Amino acid sequence: MDEPSGQPPEPREDRGPRIPPAKLSSINPEPTISLFFKPTKDSSLVLLDGKFSRDAAMIFCDRIRHDLMDNNRKSFTIVGGSLNGLKEVLSWINQCVAEQNIIKFKDFDDNAPNLFTTYANVIISAHYLGIPPRDLSDHIVKRMSAVARKQLMSWAEVEWFYTTPLLATLPDERENPVRGVAGASVFWAWWNGKLDENETPEDMMMLSVLRQEISQLDKDLHEWCERNEVEVRKKWEEKDKPKKSGVHTNGYCGENGHALDGASGGGDGGRWDEPTTVTSGGTNGWDTFSTEGPLGPPNSVATQDSGVDVAFGGKNSAALPPLHEMDGINGAGDWAEEVSEITRLNNQQW
Asked: Which of 60, 54, 47 shows the shortest CA–CA distance to 33?
């Protein structure tokens, strides 16, 4: 947003309870104000709403309230941002007033075009107007994170998330989780085998280019890998406990209580309980598109969605399968070993 005033006033609702139904019921449809939008300072005015309830604007939007109170104006102009994002926010406010309750923002269809940027523009617009995150944007961030676990956003959207200056209008504690959804979407697509050198070579080439051009994307992907390595090692430790106690000889006890043969892990080094070994650099790695080695991770059950919303940067964020399923996942174990090796070498890129 282009206004020199910078960040909106601190939302007053964050310092107390949500807007109570009694207050919502007191909102009158009149008097009204006119809301305008300008893409840039030099652009022509676009009418957003010519008859927006002044009471609703005063109660929901801290920025508008301060402007109306200080200047006794009958209109408010928003400079910069997304016209559609602002329309969605105003529609949400009107719905809250109609239902006399702070309602959850609607969920767009997972397959809607530009789904992630649409959500992001709603978050940016809500912050600009001064709407408390817990009333609107907190749910949207969780929704975005959940969809990112199972759906790869378009490369144009990935680039937008890392390069648009609009997200910089958010405070750091809001900007980082929203931007991070892009890295999460790419990581989970790779982890789930949707990004693969053989199956999706053009996508892998595009990813390679973006990682070279956008250092933060590369950093985020490394951090995702490191977080998931920790989860894999925890599972290794859990699996080793019954072996050390002598519960079985060649396998381990699955969740159904039956001993599972350790040989079910397949080839050498593929078992989840194998100690970490040094593998050749680049195997299944991010940066090996131009080499002969495979680039993508295995298509494994290790990535089935747990149904839990995982926001970017969250602790223990990987969704792993039950122990009895893990023994049959060869490549994922190799991947974890490679992560460990790269972490130790430190100066070698994926």
From this structure: 54
